[in-house]
Design brief:
Distance between the termini: 94 Å
Shape: elongated
Largest sheet: 7 strands, antiparallel
Number of strands: 18
Strand content: over 45%
Low-confidence stretches: 1-7
Helix content: under 10%
Mean pLDDT: 81
Length: 191
């Protein structure tokens, strides 16, 4: 092994019978795990440090160092690059191949889900916004409507059949709108 860390010979023997050899694609091949202790790995290309996480409660590894203001891990398959990346305020999955976000999360703020570079779902301080059509699977029924509030699950909207929309209160259908017209079910109670 020369001073630059490039293999100049076939195989180097390490302690405990491990060997380090030059691979066909100019990478060093190690015959087993690398134990980095608490020190970690370093790349001089962009100053990235990859080491065991002892600074926070979550995540086994930490990466320090950035490129163009972003820290992350890029996954490459067939010359298509997708990056899990973060800076001080934003984290997400980024499509480097088409230069667009797939998922973008702002610290203590908005979360955006993209489809082909267009925001389709976005969270806000008061809830969520869907851009485009919202299609749900299943139609629900009178005792378990499809669209409800979390605290009152037997009151809401359901779709009993094709071309029908029902309004349910307390598990009982009160309104049915269909291609035939409007059907209202109610009990009149004077004040």
């Amino acid at each position: 092994l020369d001073v630059n860390g490039t293999a100049s010979m076939g195989t180097m023997r390490l302690a405990n019978g491990f060997t380090l050899s030059q691979g066909a694609s100019n990478y060093a091949n190690l015959g087993s795990w690398i134990n980095v202790g608490t020190i970690g790995l370093y790349t001089g290309t962009n100053g990235a440090h990859f080491y065991p996480n002892t600074a926070s409660d979550y995540g086994a590894w930490r990466i320090n160092g950035a490129r163009n203001g972003w820290n992350g891990i890029t996954f490459e398959v067939g010359n298509v690059y997708n990056t899990l990346m973060s800076n001080g305020s934003t984290m997400g999955m980024y499509n480097d191949h088409e230069n667009e976000w797939m998922l973008e999360c702002t610290r203590n703020g908005t979360v955006r889900l993209y489809y082909d570079a267009v925001i389709r779902v976005e969270t806000t301080s008061v809830g969520a916004k869907v851009v485009g059509n919202l299609r749900v699977d299943g139609g629900g029924n009178a005792s378990d409507p499809l669209i409800t509030t979390q605290g009152d699950t037997n009151t809401g909207i359901y779709f009993p059949a094709d071309d029908q929309l029902g309004l349910v209160v307390g598990g009982s259908r009160k309104l049915l709108v269909s291609s035939a017209g409007l059907t209202v079910t109610f009990t009149f109670s004077p004040l």
